[in-house]
Amino acid sequence: MSTTSFRRIVALIPFVALAACGSNGGDPARQYGSDPYLPDPQEYLLPPMSIPKAIGWKVGEMPAAFPGLKVEALATGLEHPRTLYTLPNGDILVVESNSPGTEPFRPKDFIAGNVKARAGAGAKGANRISLLRTADGDGKPALRSVFIDHLHSPYGITLVGDTLYVANTDAILAFNYVPGMTQVTSPGIKLADLPAGPIDHHWTKSMAASADGSKLYVGVGSNSNITENGMAVEEGRAAIYEVDRLTGAKRIFASGTRNPTSLAFEPQTHQLFAVVNERDEIGPDLVPDYLTSIREGGFYGWPYSYWGSHVDVRVHPQRPDLVAAAIKPDYGLSSHVAPLGLLFSEGQHLSPEFANGAFVGEHGSWDRSPLNGYQVIFVPFVNGRATGKPVTVVAGFLSEDKETVHGRPVGLALDQSGALLVADDVGNTVWRVSATQPGT
Fold this sequence. Notes:
The chain has helices at about 5-10, 15-20, 105-120, 320-325; strands at about 30-35, 55, 65, 70-75, 80-85, 90-95, 130-135, 140-150, 155-160, 165, 170-175, 190-195, 205-210, 215-220, 240-245, 250-255, 260-265, 270-275, 290-295, 305, 310, 330-335, 340-345, 355-360, 375-380, 385, 390-395, 405, 410-415, 420-425, 430-435. By secondary structure, it is mainly β.
C-alpha cells in the first residue's frame, strides 16, 4: 500500500469515531443473562466506533471498588500485563505480552491498528513472565524478577505437578518448575503446535488444566471478525482444543467460539467454562459477548450464526446444518464488553456477595457508543449455573465522560489470602482488591 493511501485511511479515523454518535446502543442490562435482547442487525458503510484516549494513572489514582473493598497497586511499571497465575507457594506470575504483529491484510486493518493504539491496546508487550513474591501475604511485593524471558506472545499459563505450561501464540511450551525458584533458565520443551500463521488475527491462546491434570484446554480465536479474510485461514480457528498433557496429541473439543479468551473449571461441577468475544459491525447491541459452559463436541455458532440460530447473512456460503446445531450460550454479558478474564471465586474471600460465582474482566471495546465494559464484574452461580444480575466489583478505569481511559482490566487471579488480583494492560499495573475489614 502506498504512503498516500495509508494517509487517506488514517485520515478517516476521526470520522469513523464520529459515526458512532448517530447509532447509540441501549441499556446493557437488557443483554445480561440467558435471554438477552437481540435487535435486528444493521449495516454500515463504516461501523460505529467510540475510541477513548489511553492516559494511564497519575500518582495516587486507582480504580474504585465495591463497598467494603479496597484497591491497592501490587506492582506498577509492567509492560502490558495480560494474564495472572498464583503458584502454590503464593508467588504470582504476570504474563506481559501483546500481539506478535502481523502485516495489515486489508485497509480496515490499518484503521483497527490506529484505533487500538489510541485506546492503549497497541503497546509493546515484554514477551516475558515476571514473578512477584509478597512478604507474609501482606500484598506488598518483597521480590520481583523476570521468571521466563524471550517468549513469543505468551498468554495462557498453568502448573501441573512440577511442570509449568505456557501457551505462546504458536505453541505450548513446558518448563520444569521447582517451588521457590525465581527464574527459569532452561529452555522450554514444545508440547504441541497451536494455530498461528502470518495473519494470527486473534493471537491470544487461553489455557486451563483438567482437575486430574491429564488434559490441557486451549482457546484459539478466529482469524477475522466474520470471515473477511477467507475461510481458508479459519481452518482450526475459533475453537477450544483438548491437548493430552503427556503426548501433546490434540483435538478440537468444541468449535464456533469466535474468540475464547479465558477458560476455567467451575469448582463444584468441574465443568469447563469460557468467556467469548463475539463478532462486530452489525450494531452497538450485537452481538452480546458471553460466558458459557463448554460441551464436548459442541458448536457455538461462529461464523454462521449467533446466539443459537440467528443467522449472520454476511457469511457465504451458509451452513444451515451447523446453524441448526448451534448451542445458545449460557449467559450474555452484553455487547462489546470484550471479556478477557475469567475466575471462579472458590468460596467467600472478599465478601459474602461473591461467595459463589465468577469474576469477569471486561477489557472494553470500541465498536459501541456509549462504551461498554472497562470493569470487573461478578456473575452469581447457583448449582453450577450462571444466574441473576451481575455485580460491578471494580470500576473507574474509564473516565466519567468516557473520553479517556486510565486502564483496562484483563486477567484475574486470587492470591493466597483470597484477595482478587487484576491485570491492567493500559495502566501497566497489577491491582490487588481486598476486604477493608478482613474476615467479615
